[in-house]
């Protein structure tokens, strides 16, 4: 079993056992717990679940859409054969001033890369998608909305803050895609991947995901070891990475667990 499975399933188990049952805007109630934390040393193991199949390539494409393409246009994501944002697409084809829009608006990827290269002991390396002024014009207010970056002895550390975490669908994507991001940014800044800490303010399980997550919990004993991440080492420019440059080697898992997304 991967360390990702252990930490993720501990949270899932705790929510199912002790979570507070409450309504929310989607109409599908959730069980929820506050302030759940996972922490991975990326030098030791790449965090991805093995107790179910995580659509790794899809998660990587969504990440590149936000951080590299810096797009809010759902058609750009669909062009990569990724459809996880289809339900939130507005008639103009975008998700409004959300996600990639906020990265581009303030050149946040460029600034982070530049600071990591020129002033790695800077204590102000923050990328934030939470822009109060623009919130009313977003199709969805960003969930994984902030990262804080830090360097110790050549190791790149990242703290991800997520205000709202869908444990069944969003979180398995988020934990893995942000781990990929740390690897990508480390490679192009001459650093090595260090600690990745993922804080979730409202960690919830939708009522209609309970059965699938119970199935996943029951699979624990059979879980395979974690795969390894392999990135094309020749790439030194963050904007040159393609999904093909980012490969999972020997990803063994216990199969898909379909869940419906609450819109
Ligand atoms: N309720 C909700 N949960 C989320 O996780 C979420 C939202 N809304 N809204 C915006 C994005 C969209 N996200 C999504 C949407 C769908 C999948 C999903 O269906 N995942 C499937 C595989 C999809 C594929 O293979 O392409 C899965 O089994 O993980 C994942 C994340 C994450 N976000
Ligand atoms: O990257 C993401 C994006 C979204 N989510 C989930 C978290 C919630 O279940 C919904 C958003 O609903 P709000 O009412 O705006 O909190 O989407 C996620 O887990 N990860």
UniProtKB/TrEMBL annotation:
GO molecular function: thymidylate synthase activity
Main location: cytoplasm
Active site: 143
Gene3D superfamilies: Thymidylate synthase/dCMP hydroxymethylase domain
EC number assigned by the record: 2.1.1.45
Protein residues bound to (6R)-5,10-methylene-5,6,7,8-tetrahydrofolate: 166, 262
Record localization: Cytoplasm
Keyword Transferase: yes
Amino acids binding dUMP: 25, 123-124, 163-166, 174, 204-206
Ranges of residues in domain Thymidylate synthase/dCMP hydroxymethylase: 7-263
InterPro entries on file: Thymidate_synth/dCMP_Mease, Thymidate_synth/dCMP_Mease_dom, Thymidate_synth/dCMP_Mease_sf, Thymidylate_synthase, Thymidylate_synthase_AS
Pathways involved: Pyrimidine metabolism; dTTP biosynthesis
One BP annotation, GO: methylation
Keywords: Cytoplasm, Methyltransferase, Nucleotide biosynthesis, Transferase
Catalytic activity as recorded in UniProt: dUMP + (6R)-5,10-methylene-5,6,7,8-tetrahydrofolate = 7,8-dihydrofolate + dTMP
Subunit structure comment from the entry: Homodimer.
Function: Catalyzes the reductive methylation of 2'-deoxyuridine-5'-monophosphate (dUMP) to 2'-deoxythymidine-5'-monophosphate (dTMP) while utilizing 5,10-methylenetetrahydrofolate (mTHF) as the methyl donor and reductant in the reaction, yielding dihydrofolate (DHF) as a by-product. This enzymatic reaction provides an intracellular de novo source of dTMP, an essential precursor for DNA biosynthesis.
Cited NCBIfam families: PRK01827.1-1, thym_sym
Similarity field: Belongs to the thymidylate synthase family. Bacterial-type ThyA subfamily.
Full protein name: Thymidylate synthase
